[in-house]
Amino acid sequence: MKIHFCLAIFLILLVSCSEKKKEIVIIEGDIREQMFKAYKEGMDHLSNGQNILAAQKFNDAEIFYPQSIWAPKSALMAAYAYYSQNYYSDAIFEIDRYLEKYPKDKNIVYGHYLKAICYFEQVEDEKKNFASIDGAKRQLEFIIINYPNTDFALDSKYKLELINSVLASKEIYLGRYYMQRKKWVASINRFKYVLKYYDTTVYAPEALHRLVELYYILGYIEESKKYASILGYNYKSDKWYKETYKIYNKNYVNPIKDAKEKKSIIKKFKSLF
């Protein structure tokens, strides 16, 4: 009787366990089906231009089955959906979450690139969008350093040159501003900054020319000639080299001397009365 009783208990437990396993399989199958359904709906919304709804569906797909290979894809697609609608802040939020949650995902480089593009496309005016410029620059440099042999790195180099050109133009503008107000040292520092950090941009020849001019004005002729030589060696056909050549012409007007002469003339004129 004891043996029969034990067998009965074992059979009950076995049936109970098998039913639980069956229930788990059914539940897992349902979750997977819901995940695929949500992902498909997300793609449909994206195709129809309903990007916000698409992002929500991709988020749902990730939540339904977070252990699957579709979870990081869903997270990345949610970010892309926001980006496509120019919701850059939401897109960056989703990308940061994706990068933190799935650091070993095979599409990780695309996540970094998409973040860079979110910043890059917000760059309009350096004075208004410095945070966007800084974010784009850091992300593009990160891709170039960490993923050098990818197409993303190649495009990042091109976009980084554009970013550097925007930053160089700001330095050139400030250099001219200080130059017009005869703030010679401040002006020199701006143009030197361009040569140090943005020497591959189109603003490098002008920076060299301005340094030739500034050192000539201040009486440092040898220093002036040094920058003139660099300009001539690297940019001989550039318009700024031709402008530099005029500095050593007899007709060149030194702003410092010219200002002193004007003051002395005014002084003499006033003394007549």
First-residue to last-residue Cα separation:
139 Å
Basic shape: elongated
Largest sheet: none
Relative helix content:
over 70%
Note the beta-strand portion: under 5%
Report the order of strands and helices. Answer: HHHHHHHHHHHH
**Strand pairing plus helix content: what structural class?**
mainly alpha
Overall pLDDT: 82
In angstroms, what is the radius of gyration?
33 Å
Low-pLDDT stretches = 1-27, 258-273
- Strand segment count: 0
Task: Give a quick summary of the entry.
This protein has helices at 2-47, 51-64, 70-84, 88-101, 108-120, 130-146, 151-180, 184-197, 204-217, 221-234, 239-247, 255-271. The protein is an all-alpha fold and 273 residues long. The protein starts with a helix and ends with a helix.
Write the layout of secondary structure elements.
Elements: H1 2-47, H2 51-64, H3 70-84, H4 88-101, H5 108-120, H6 130-146, H7 151-180, H8 184-197, H9 204-217, H10 221-234, H11 239-247, H12 255-271
